[in-house]
Specification:
The protein has 90 residues and is α+β, with helices and mostly antiparallel strands. The chain is built from two helices and two strands; from the N terminus they run E-E-H-H. It has one domain. 64% of the residues lie in helices and 16% in strands. Its main location: cytoplasm.
Amino acid sequence: MSEERKNRITVEILGQQYVIIGKESPNHIRHVATTVDEKMKEIRNKNTFLDTNQLAVLTAVNAVNEYIKLKEKYDRLQERLNQLESDTNQ
């Protein structure tokens, strides 16, 4: 049984270095880390009183909120596509 190769990438988020290990490409991992870093800086600039833990939680809440909205939109579009395909096949 062959094991899928994992990439080990060092990234910087809010001035801290983290080693991320994942199956995704190094470019993808860096893109994710850069997006997290940007989002954390954006939230910190609006809420300068937050400590790092609070900032991390708010960033996670914002990211999951965006994910849920996109997932709901995707599901609606998938339903429309399925309906259109069904109508076409009739």
